[in-house]
Amino acid sequence: MQISAARTVHATPLGNVRIEASSVGVSRVVFTDDAPATPTAENSCALEYVVTAVAQLDGYLAGTRREFTVRTDRSALSAFDRQVLETLESTTRYGDTTTYGALARALGRGPADARKVGGALARNPLLMLIPCHRVLGADGALTGYAGGLPVKRALLDLEAVDLLLPVLLA
Fold this sequence. Notes:
Blueprint: E1 6-12, E2 15-21, E3 26-31, E4 37-41, H1 44-61, H2 79-91, E5 98-99, H3 100-106, H4 114-122, E6 135-136, H5 149-169
Parallel strand pairs: 5-6
Antiparallel strand pairs: 1-2, 1-4, 2-3
């Protein structure tokens, strides 16, 4: 388990997020009811990861960033959870969606493993940085998201509007 060496609570248009980092990278981005707080750090490297994550999240939510480049620390994840999240990142780009079943298939697993995939996504400690909001139910329905379904819808809408805008202007 990684040790948080820097942390903050950052206000976003979708709610406050707790951001934590180790000396390896950002280890946690989760929605919280905690009040915004200035970053605190036990080491400057971890503080840099927190500050970078804040700037990149702000850019993403403002519609000016599509990808996150801040280093992440996934050392606390199980091998299966890490595999699920890495497969999601490599197969589902900005503005795209997938299903739990499709993600299970991409992992070389059967449809019965869709629930296991859902469990791994539910444990995602890096919300938005690892885009589990892009995963839908088999029928296209919005299903669980740690930030709540309204936040999931807002994130999907943010990405969809960005992709549709050039078509509307053409």
